[in-house]
Design a protein that fits this description.
alpha/beta, Rossmann fold, TIM Barrel, seven-stranded mixed sheet, 15 strands, globular
Length: about 450
């Protein structure tokens, strides 16, 4: 029986923002891939570097397990993987080097490997697995000829080859459940309870997003939305609740419960199976403006929704092709409030064409709606997006953030990186507290005035 050692490149202590938040989740896609290997008679092991990414520990795992193949399989549900951080790329490169030293072939899968497939081969990986990983990984581990494996990027002698893409999985219920037994749940429980007093685990009900925001990269799951049956999701929720006893669930879907009938059926199944746990999820404001959908989510246990508001300026939203009306933000906020669900906003500054009046509109929106929490970022161009095409001529050598809290402007924005970082700090203080808001806003105004003076000069 062939054996595969799976790993990923996300180490919480290498990212100051994530170490401060201390909300680590197991690598869900990685253990889904492990389950697919097992279902096909292939032994699967996991080296999880979330808490310990030392080369010595990984080398020890390779020496102990003697795998036939090493697979850096990123968690495609984790937003850190989607951000294609430079620090994570360097960690993947280090894994490839150790695999080579041990004489074990290594392959890679994930958003960054997809965007930079040739570079990953140069790191020493034998192949990059494009698109959804499960079946491609199984066929590679089984030793199928590489030119016959859909969704594979590889080197044939002196040339690079990209095989035809693999079709998306249409029946997500056909996938085996994640190999949770490979995860040291105790480490995650300890991290969560020490920092927050409760323990959260991650699940996913769907893949893909049908909306076409022009800054959003979808290198793995694409735009075709596929969802598991309400019964299957509720059953997995019940299993996790019974066996691993989390206090909370994070549904890591790009959009959870896209359709109201699905949400209603899910709530019914959760009640029937007694699977209810408090959970948080991601959605859109226009979807959360629907009273029936929100009522169903509340009945299923939803206590927090994060929505991609992005901007309070209709002009900026139109440029982003967000297809969202500002009125939807107000309606969603009030609808969630009525049902006792926390409403949280993702905000994005620095999109091309945004000026101070647009920023003021976003600040005003936040003050008028009083979200329960916000996450602030600056526009971040990733390959494969229309936004990246728009600004690619302005980008220099730095194409990716180093860590998730970087917030560097890597194209020519209206203001400096220092301004946007100060703006993010001021808004976070205003919403969350914990600082001097007057001082924070004075810093924003000082940097804005300096930019205006430079423009005049």
């Amino acid at each position: 029986m062939p054996s595969v050692l799976l790993t990923h490149s996300n180490h919480i202590y290498s990212d100051p923002k994530q170490a401060q938040k201390m909300q680590p989740y197991p690598p869900l896609q990685t253990i889904l891939a492990a389950a697919a290997l097992r279902a096909n008679g292939i032994a699967a092991h996991l080296f999880d570097p979330t808490f310990d990414d030392s080369p010595r520990a990984f080398r020890h795992a390779v020496d102990r397990l003697q795998p036939d193949l090493i697979a850096v399989c990123e968690d495609d549900f984790n937003f850190l993987s989607k951000m294609c951080l430079a620090a994570n790329r360097q960690r993947a490169r280090q894994i490839a080097a150790i695999a080579a030293e041990c004489g074990v072939p290594a392959i890679a899968h994930g958003a960054d490997a997809t965007d930079r497939a040739a570079e990953y081969l140069a790191f020493g990986f034998a192949a990059v697995l494009l698109g959804e990983v499960e079946q491609t990984l199984v066929e590679y581990a089984q030793g199928r000829p590489r030119d016959q494996i859909a969704g594979l990027f590889w080197r044939s002698h002196d040339s690079l080859r990209r095989n035809p893409p693999r079709a998306p999985i249409t029946d997500l219920d056909s996938l085996p459940p994640p190999a949770w037994d490979l995860v040291d749940i105790g480490q995650y429980r300890s991290a969560w309870t020490s920092a927050h007093g409760y323990f959260s685990l991650n699940l996913a009900s769907s893949r893909g997003c049908p909306y076409r925001c022009n800054w959003c990269a979808k290198p793995v799951y694409g735009s075709r939305y596929r969802v598991r049956s309400p019964r299957a999701v509720a059953a997995e929720m019940h299993h996790v609740k019974s066996v691993y006893r989390p206090d909370h669930i994070w549904f890591a879907d790009d959009i959870f419960a896209l359709a109201t009938p699905w949400a209603e059926a899910f709530a019914s199944q959760v009640r029937s199976l007694r699977a209810s746990l408090p959970f948080k999820m991601q959605s859109r404001c226009d979807l959360m403006a629907r009273p029936a959908a929100v009522a169903a989510l509340r009945a299923a246990g939803c206590e927090e929704v994060w929505m991609g508001v992005e901007s309070g300026s209709p002009r900026v939203l139109d440029r982003m092709e967000k297809n969202l009306a500002i009125e939807d933000v107000y309606a969603a906020r009030e609808n969630l409030r009525r049902h006792g669900i926390r409403a949280c906003f993702f905000l994005q500054f620095g999109y091309p064409g945004e000026d101070w009046s647009d920023i003021e509109a976003t600040i005003r929106l936040v003050r008028e709606t009083s979200p329960d929490d916000i996450g602030v970022s600056v526009s971040y161009p990733l390959p494969g997006t229309k936004f990246h095409q728009i600004v690619s001529g302005q980008m220099g050598a730095k194409a990716n953030w180093e860590t998730s809290g970087d917030l560097s402007m890597i194209f020519h924005g209206a203001f400096s990186t220092a301004f946007y970082r100060a703006l993010a700090d001021a808004l976070h203080i205003e919403v969350r507290g914990g600082g001097n808001p007057a001082e924070a806003w004075r810093k924003v105004e000082s940097l804005r005035s300096a930019a205006a003076s430079e423009a005049v000069a």
